[in-house]
Amino acid sequence: AQKVVLGELGKQARFKNIVKLEVDFDTQKDALKALNVRMQSTLIVYKGDKEMGRLAYDASKESIEALLAK
Q1: What angle, 0 to 180 degrees and rounded to 10, lies between the N-to-C axes of helices 61-69 and 2-9?
Q2: 20, 40, 54, 65: which could form a disulfide with 44 (CB 3.0–4.6 Å)?
Q3: pLDDT per residue rounded down to tens, the chain (70 residues)
Q4: What pTM, to 2 d.p., does this model score?
């Protein structure tokens, strides 16, 4: 569900430069550990190398849009 919302928001001019990376929860355990992700469907937003925030199990357009706007 997050992918659908991210796809929609990615069409907006203000989010056109966002880079999306996906980590597979079942097979990329080293990446999950490095990112301190403990739950599936965790969305993390960075600006440069600084984490701006994260959501877990939240696919609402409003929540994701607010996080991306940071």
Answers
A1: 50
A2: 54
A3: 899 999 999 999 999 888 899 999 999 999 999 999 999 999 999 999 999 999 999 999 999 999 999 8
A4: 0.84
